[in-house]
Amino acid sequence: MLEALLNSLASSLNGIFGGWSSRHLHPAQVLVVASPVSALVGLCLLLSSPTSPTMSGVTIGLVAGLSGGIGIYFAYRALAKGPIGPVTAIMACTGAALISTVGIAERGSVGPLHLLALSLCFLAVVTVSVRKTEHAVAASTLSIALAAGVIGGSFSILMNLTTPADGWWPLFMVRLGVVLFTLPFALLVLRAQHKRENPVPMWVWFAAAGAGLMDGLGNMFLILALERIDLATLALFAAASPALSALLGFVLLREPISKIQALGVGVAGLGIWIAYL
């Protein structure tokens, strides 16, 4: 389950880096920087362990990449509007609900400990999302976050259809599909803006590149995790990622964390611990 936890950690860092850089750049600009970095991760993995491509692996990866590009754009746009903690929670909860539904249907049934762990992780989402009214998520941001969550959950479900025989081809095709879709789309969006932006500090661009790196590594850990666990178990870690985001936001961005949000971090940890039992 270590790979699933690392996937959640990478996803949380991707959200923090992507959301933070999207506050200084247009989300399309973040994609222009992040997508090639993620593709480079996929290429390095493919070259490190070369295998013959399979039709299923290439097809699934390309479909997941083309749709995932839309999801990434939605995610960065929602995170730019913020607040990062609640928006991350909404996306994670939506994705986890979809993953757990498909996972439980695939498994047929789950034990009481699994249901308890899943309930605790969803409770963590609620507690981490608690904010004052003036910091509530706007309705427009909510709709974008929900769409990003659905696409993110669908991405994990598609990756579950791959097999070890596919090697790293699905991941490489995912990243290639994202580049093929998002770069032309992003350039069209930026061209339509016709705005002169103020000079952006270099560290903002590095944050955007960091988002791409975490996105690519998150995909790697996801594929490794799905070789060892099923979707129903993966949903536990997907639901726990907002707690990681809240904790990382406090450490990296100095975002304030309330006592009830700190409780949510602890509840998520308890849920993951129960999942190991």
UniProtKB/TrEMBL annotation:
Residues annotated as domain EamA: 143-276
Entry coiled-coil feature ranges: none
Transmembrane regions? 55-75, 87-105, 111-130, 142-162, 168-190, 202-225, 231-253, 260-276
Pfam families referenced in this protein's UniProt entry, alphabetically: EamA
Keywords from the UniProt entry = Membrane, Transmembrane, Transmembrane helix
One CC-aspect GO term? membrane
Show the InterPro entries listed in the entry: EamA_dom (IPR000620), EmrE-like (IPR037185)
The keyword Transmembrane helix is annotated on this UniProt entry:
yes
What PANTHER family does the entry give?
ACYL-MALONYL CONDENSING ENZYME-RELATED, SOLUTE CARRIER FAMILY 35 MEMBER G2-RELATED
**Name listed for the protein in its UniProt record:** Unannotated protein
Organism of provenance: freshwater metagenome
